[in-house]
Amino acid sequence: MASGEGLEDIVAGKSAISTIDGKRGVLTYRGISIHDLADHSTFEETVYLLWYGRLPKAVELRNFCEQAWAEVRLPKDVVAQLHSLPDDANPMSLLRTGVSLLGLSDPEEGGSNAPEQPAPGVNLIGQLGPEAPGFGPNHPNSKKAVRLLGQMAALVAAIQRLQKHQDLVAPRPGKSIAYNFLLMLTGKEPDEEATRIFDTCLILHADHEFNASTFTARVAAGTLSDLHSAIVAAVCALKGPLHGGANTAVMKMLMEVQDPARAQDWVKDALDKKKKIMGFGHRMYKGEDPRATHLRKMSESLCAKVGRPDLYELSKNIETAMFALKQIKPNVDFYSASVYYSLGIDPELYTPIFAMSRVSGWIAHVLEQLANNRLIRPVADYVGRQDVPYAPLAQR
Predict the structure, then answer these.
(1) Structural domains of the chain, with CATH
(2) Which pTM was predicted?
(3) Quick one: which of 240, 237, 321, 243 has its CA closest to 282?
């Protein structure tokens, strides 16, 4: 690969949101280790950290949760339009359209993302974080950001329910995004362990520096397009199988292999045939993806709980075979597949769930881009022909 292709190792901008040390296997949000956040935080607290640059105080977290939880619902006109869409469509296509519909129905959507003058006496979320310049309680995107965070969870759950011709399930007031998503998806009240595990999954997927979809969102925001348009652009980038979709492919692989005893032979045969085995390797990490560390443990626990310890054993055997044959370790997608499956989530919904979490990071990057905006316009290294004379039509 020529230097710079795919912008590999090219610094495309400055950010104070998340950082990756691929050699040491370190991921941080606003300087806090992903391990600490996975072990001690909640998704809502992590979102506050990403948006405001610091952990919230108790009253700030309570206010933020109340606002976000109240938005885990869809406007009636959006639900009606979702019913009119093909029920056999790709869930990511439905998500893309759904976010557009949410933008059309948002009472504050339209126009530019540029901040307005603060309105006196308004206190929507909390005070401005020291590392999040430009985003405070009076920023025009404050209400839209919180609204979209909650609506994404309702939208992803609705997509699966509608595709199965099932009635939508109302959220339970005062419950977390993770709890209500599982409730709205399955129609059953999730237990404490399932809720906590899914909440941790949302934390682990919330942000990952300048990945393809995040950078796409920043490019769109850099034009001063609206918030929903920037998120639609990010969803479009995530839809591509080289960025999103790997965890769905992992689950299909597990279903194909089935028997843990077959894992090593299956992996060797696949590698001999030059097949790409999804869920392994990462451009940024040379060793263990720190998110996989947590997902592996959650997979073992959940698979045993739902009576499918063989699914974890199969995953572990594939991991062992891949490292023995290629010295490649799993990434965030590998064990998330068996975790989601054990939670009763259809594989086709895995990438929309990724978006449901990552919208928090996308919004953080949109806000950061707008805080010190400059239109993103790279240059190309032209390698085409030069000085080509124009040939009249009759001479071609």
Answers:
(1) 34-118+129-200+208-240+356-371 (1.10.580.10)
(2) 0.89
(3) 243
